[in-house]
Amino acid sequence: MAIKNKKLNLKDKYQYLTRDMAWEPTYQKKEDIYPDEQFEGIKITDWSQWEDPFRLTMDAYWKYQAEKEKKLYAIFDAFAQNNGHQNITDARYVNALKLFLSGVSPLEYAAFQGYARVGRQFSGAGARVACQMQAIDELRHSQTQQHAMSHYNKHFNGLHDAAHQHDRIWFLSVPKSFFDDARSAGPFEFLTAISFSFEYVLTNLLFVPFMSGAAYNGDMATVTFGFSAQSDEARHMTLGLEVIKFILEQHEDNVPIIQRWIDKWFWRGFRLLSLVGMMMDYMLPNKVMSWAEAWEVYYEQNGGALFKDLERYGIRPPKYQDVANAAKNHVSHQAWSTFYQYSQATNFHTWMPEEEEMTWLSEKYPETFDKYYRARFEHWDKEHKEGRRFYNNTLPQLCQVCQIPVIFTEKDDPSVFSHRQIKHDGERYHFCSDGCCDIFKNEPVKYIQAWLPVHQIYQGNCGGADVATVVEKYYHINPGVDNMEYHGSPDHQRWLDIKGLKPLKSNNEKKTAA
Amino acid sequence: MTIEIKTTSVEPIRNTYSAIARRFGDKPATRYQEASFDIEAKTNFHYRPLWDPKRTLNDPSRTAIQMEDWHAVTDPRQFFYGAYVGNRAKMQEAAESNFSFCDKRNLLTRLPEETQHQLLRLLVPLRHVELGANMNNSKIAGDAIATTVAQMHMFAATDRLGIGQYLSRIALLLDGSTGKALDESKTFWMDDELWQPMRKLVEDMLVIDDWFELTLVQNVLLDGLMYPLIYDRMDAWLGEQGAEDVSLLTEFQRDWYKESLRWTNAMIKTVVGESDGNREQLQSWITQWEPLAYEALKPIAEATTGLDALDEIRAELAARLKKVGLESTGVQA
């Protein structure tokens, strides 16, 4: 065959190897093949304008990913063989992994399911292929995380039933409802929520702090996973930005819809990140940076630049960004206070910071820590040392949207809880903030369905009437082993054995059952 | 003499995750087990999907097939992500060396014009069928509720994209990477009467809602006839036309299909074995779709291998289904 045209460039060649395999259907109607593409009101006039965010054919994908897996599993094997868990900074660190495995890994799996679905839904084949690549990457992450933490599970408590707990434990409904919300939305909102808000805007505040925490605390298995996932994450971030620009460029009617989704998913993401904030400030024995510093760099600076860039599409920064920015000096302390009090119902241990950690917190939070939080923490520490470790046995009021207990304070007054309520269809609903309340008002039919753990316990849907039964039988938490105070716990004892140190005095081991 | 490195022995407090221990006992688990069982959400979903308000997320009723526990369907290849990409990396290495061998020696471009035309008309349009298979398997991966089932379909989805890309590259070898041959080949898919029953079937499959019906039609019935016809019988027929070198470029598909039989057979066997209700449901789908798959391939067989070859393959599929207590109509098995 004679060569008549000129050779394809890389971009066109990739298009021939992906979207050109698609065709305009004639035997079935397009809207029957892609039934979910219309209902959100997003207008796509020309899918051919889609810019492939990365160009990776399957053969190259298999090759690169297999090389990465080979290296990763070699490290996992070496880690297990050499009992690498003995080299971490302190066993308190493992509690960050418990939070990760039960709070984040199930989201990777949910992302796999969500991307597999939207990877079928779009009529633009270029976008479908990019979503499918992310789907299989997310499956990778959920599985390699099981393997990275498998060795820890053999030597520490509280990591043993993460997916079961993700479906049930009160605070895990925070991440779960976040992803359920995205997955139950239409395909364009799913991408705005996960590809843009979650992967692009917030990944440095969610995924990265756990991996940096691993690096700072001698956790070779997890940090190696983190490095191995880095190039996947870079692809996912590129997709996130392409998605948003593509939708905005397609039609001006899309702008207000996207703006509403950005407002919603920024706020939901910000609330979810409270868990990461407390992990960074309180759960890492060797700290990477404070939550407030991370928020300043990764949201206020980087996010600020991003939203400046999006201005030309008519997009403004997320609503209530000012509230979130002001909250950076409070959320981690308020969250840790809550988890400390309710540790009888968590799958990880809590503790009061040691004196040098208190000093660090005072330095990092000069405006707030000494003024609002130190006295409470010192009081709890003293109570504990005198044999009265504090546990709160009153179940808290949860926010109908983010599902975090109503624990956060007003922007202008840290001594007043932020609490909103409205009536809808004769029922009263409670919220932690205007941000969550707005989200509810936009889609009340969705949020009245929320599976609120505290309500469910009171309604008798969690296997028992009292918290102790729910925790043990329904949550699969081994009381006093997986949960409650760290000092004197079996994990603590084991760690002292590993390090050849003497156990602590017995009055530190007293536990007040819930 | 042996060398002996002294290590401290550390006794584990448990051997695996609780969910794995509940299934297999508290003993060291395989990586396949820890990656594939009970890692998905199962209950207490918060919101009904806007796109399917009658059901929940991860709803078992997205197929008429009922299983006490979908994890009963497992992968005989024991593929989790790492094992999967490792395997495919080896297969692509072989494919790559075949493609570069053909390219270097101009094995395709020295074929007679007519044979090159036949490749564009009869082989390369299958890339569109592969894209349909890719979409279908991605849908199934999103709908199937157990990881053991979902991941096999995700792997199939990316496999089918890859196979579509290998088929496309045959045309790129023919036209010197200009895309002209792919454009020409696509006109056959769109307009040539030979392909219309197949294109109609593929489009009809794209509106199947029940995910297990879809895996049956795509991965068992259509593939069960199409892969042996194209990559075995038609491959031999192309050899008779002097185009035996094309075999080098479809080796991946032959290896792939042989391997895929392992999981599709195991899946059907388990699902049929679960209940008579499942068997009857599968049977009714087979009765409906198998003749359509046959009809879609008929013009291609007639233009190449002759209809006898397709009938033989049809009998082979019937024999394969009969082993698990299912019948396909239209031919004596």
Q: Would you write up a description of this structure?
A:
The complex is a heterodimer of chains A (514) and B (333). Chain A is mainly α and 514 residues long. Chain A has helices at residues 10-16, 30-33, 58-81, 94-103, 105-121, 125-155, 162-166, 173-183, 187-201, 203-216, 220-250, 254-272, 274-283, 291-310, 321-327, 331-341, 355-364, 369-385, 434-442, 444-447, 453-458, 467-474, 490-498, and strands at 409-410, 413-417, 420-424, 427-431. Chain A has a two-stranded antiparallel ribbon. Chain A is globular. Chain B has a single domain (72-322), classed as Orthogonal Bundle (Ribonucleotide Reductase, subunit A). Chain B has 13 helices and no strands. The interface between A and B is large, with 99 and 92 residues.
Q: How much is the radius of gyration of chain A in Å?
A: 24 Å
Give me the count of strands of chain A. Answer: 4
Gyration radius of chain B (Cα, Å) is: 23 Å
Query: How many domains, in number, for the residues of chain B?
Result: 1
Proportion of helical residues of chain A: 55-70%
The number of distinct β-strands of chain B equals 0
Percentage of residues in strands of chain A? under 5%
Features of this protein?
heterodimer; A: 514 residues; mainly alpha; Ribonucleotide Reductase, subunit A; two-stranded antiparallel ribbon; disordered C terminus; B: 333 residues
Give a brief description.
Chain A is built from 23 helices and four strands.
